[in-house]
Amino acid sequence: MKAKRVQLQSLRTEFETLRMKISESVIDFFARTMKIANKMRIHGEKMEDVTIVEKILPSMTPKFNFVVCSIEESKDINNLSIDELQSSLLVHEQKVTKQEKRSKY
């Protein structure tokens, strides 16, 4: 039982300090976040979707600042699903990637 508690504490720390890496894609960041969240759930943590959404939004890289602000202002975070959030951020990521490719030419 103690080992399980120690493991959960380690996962909590990992979740709390989680940040998107500059070179990381939205898909990869969500996968990494969900992997930790699901491990926490397995160890008995009551991890609700809203907690994950509230963690992801401020953990995005600066290129997502505009869309994060927009999501926070226009959507009810308590009712925003992880899939909806991921879709919104993916659309933004694709636009940014297109603009970056265009500006290289």
UniProtKB/TrEMBL annotation:
Annotated Pfam families = Retrotran_gag_2 (PF14223)
User: What superkingdom heads the lineage?
Assistant: Eukaryota
Protein's name in the database: Uncharacterized protein LOC103496216
Per the UniProt entry, what species is this protein from, by scientific name?
Cucumis melo (Muskmelon)
